[in-house]
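Input for the complex:
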Amino acid sequence: MQSQTPLPDFIAGLLDAIPGVSGDAQLTFIVAAILAGAIVGSLMLTQTALVIWAKRKITAAFTDRIAINRVGPAGLLIIPADALRLLSKELIVPEGVDRPAWDLAPLVLAASALFGFAVIPMGSLLGINFQVADPETGLAYVFATASMASIGLVMAGYASNNKYSFLGGLRAVAQNLAYEIPLILTGMSVVLFAGTLQTSGIVAAQSETLINLGGLAIPSWYAFVNPFAFVLFLIANLAEVGRNPFDIPEAPTEIVAGYQTEYSSVYFVLMYLGEFIHIFLGGAIIATIFLGGPAGPVLPGLIWFLIKIWGVFLFTQWARSAVPRVRIDQLIEIGWKGMLVLSFANLLLTAVIVGVIV
Amino acid sequence: MSLEEPEPSTQLDVGVSEDGLNYDQIEALLGDSVIGRESHVNAEGFVIRPDDVQAVLSTLKTEAGFDFCSCVTAQEYQDRYESIYHLKKYDDPTQEVSVVVPSPRDDPHNQTAQPVYETAAWHEREAYDLVGIDYEEHPDLRRILLPETWQGHPLSLDYNQEKPQIVTLREHANPLQDDKRSPDDPDTMFVNIGPHHPATHGVLHVKTTLDGEQIADIEPDIGYLHRCEEQMCQQGTYRHQIMPYPDRWDYVSAGILNEWAYARAAEDLADIEVPEYAQVIRTMSAELCRIASHALAMGTFALDVFGDFTAVFQYAFRDREVVQSILEDLTGQRLMFNYLRLGGVAWDLPEPREEFFEKVRDMLDELPGKLEEYHDLVTGNEIFQMRCVDTGVLTPEKAKEFGCTGPVARGSGVDYDLRRDDPYGYYDELDWNVVTEDGCDNFSRVLVRLRELEESARIIEQCIDLLEEWPEDDREIQANVPRTLRPDPDREIYRAVEGAKGELGIYIRSDGTDKPARFKIRSPCFSNLHSLATMSEGEYVPDMIASLGSLDIVLGEVDR
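Predicted:
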């Protein structure tokens, strides 16, 4: 493992090195923290910008189409074009919306997902460790911030003064409740293995070699150690980010666009952004607790980390293209009667294994 | 196989004899109710008094076995209004009878047939809307195609067509106005699904009352795509001017099937014999249309259940494109084929013929593999089965009650297909099967369509074999039809073909001119859509959307 200095400390060190800036250590640290947050946030926002292009290309590949190929090389210029288009649209505020809540909901949605990245160890590039903070309660913090999205969803749905939005908001909350508990319980089974909530600790615990297959060292990533938990988590994560077969909160053919029906222009961009950052956060959590975080051969850690996130994104797009959507009552049933029971079983099993064998 | 209970046949076959229906026996059954007889080309018509409608129809239904009210035609004469109930039997649609109900011009009224045949409720609403006959005791006699604020009845004789019917928004009924909440259950919510909604397959407006997420009450509101097709056909000449219109009813690739409905009715009306070679081409091209239409139906149904423009939808379009390009080679068009002519088809197969045959054969060879893919991806998918099995249930009894036909009826185990039961074209010479499924749910309707693709492919293959072998000097594509067709006056006919969505029937009355005096379209989608409320009551919104998708309606045909 390379240097474990969190990013803000590293930046503070750089700032101190600049003559004339150093002095007030507190101020330096605050500036450094803000800078670090901005860097990590921008990194993720760049990824979501890329999604504008990648999502279309990926879906097109799944559905036997070509997708954008005229705007720039391979259609890549669609990213600035779309950004410009979306940002220059008129913001339509429907009559009778519940104003502060309606305005805040997109912010809450986008922010809640971004917050989570603060404690994710994204590996290092050129000796810089991309992790804003590494508290002892790291994993609990990630789940807590990710859950805040539910508040945003219900705010959006309720404040829009639209029946489709209302239904979508209620569906979203019911779904998140039903799937967050299995999600967290399955995450906890990893914590039992690693013995720590600290994200860097979990990553470190996965660096040992599990088994040697003819010279090829298989690391003890928890996806290999406990594939059952991995699959459970992957499914719960699909529901958490609202992708097929669990895209019920926005179900276009049923309730138009669910909670985002009434949002346009910048607010819509924020919603959309929030949604994709959420998928990336889901991918980041999966990468951290099941796929060894930034670990990987040859390439730098950060690149590996991004590859893993995109892998999870690819999986969600695959599910979206090929799997039908379940009905709301079936979804709740799967969540409470299936996933919850399985995740408890998984937790118990892990506890027994960890307590008795290890 | 049919789900129906074996009915006691002794009571239900009044008038059935070896050589067709004995109408005298049926007349005897009806007794004094019959005040006259009319002879239509397709069946005998019994003239009855406006107050006897329910009594006569229920006698015919319960004692003579006429369990299918195919269509209700209303029209205005110089001296009277008239409603015609076209009755058939699901077991044998060649056994037909018309019940003709005249009513006075100054007070057009007519007892409703709704208690006897549920499907009559919508047909009578349409008759009231367009012609202006007052159906007494009708539970819900409102306009159905035209806006509620419309003035006058456009197909009545004294309707002033010059005067524009301006409907101001203020006058228009507010859908929120009447409170759908019942006092003892105030927890329901009224939602307008459509006319602009991602899943209504066109401009359909479903007034939905929700109890939580479950449907407490729905009411399809149609007419957004009403284009006066009947009126336009009445203003066109038989020979050339009507044929382009059928393409515009069910416009998603079922064009030739629709054209055949008009061709069949008009040819029987004017006694035109179609050459055998042309019949084979018609049969082949119609089945090509059916494949394209069913592929699209499957794709859009997947769209409703899968939730997005997913792989299945795109695959369905990809595979439909192959058929579409064959149709383009054949007819020169991709959407509005306009290929059939009275007495034949527009032109022979494209040259070089071998190339065309090869193209069709390639399509047929690839079809089984594609169907397998659909079965893997769609019907074999467990989530799909979870969503579709036992949802949108339409029992065979209800299906008959609502006059459902086509894949909707066959998915409910009603073994009814006009291609076999009332043969036309070249169908009775070919070897194929009618597909039925007993599930009565959304899943069965999808299965029926997928299996019908195979049967259509079989039909096309046999047609191709025939066409390939056909001697060159015997390729007659057009019968001798007078340039101006003037069928004898006062001939009336109701003829139907098996369209992509079900029984597509045409009623024509001639008045000795070269244009029809009355042209009535019996749209299968119209009757099928009527059953939506029954199918989706108490179910969840997604299931209602799925049921709507499984009905496979095309609003162009519903609204005409």
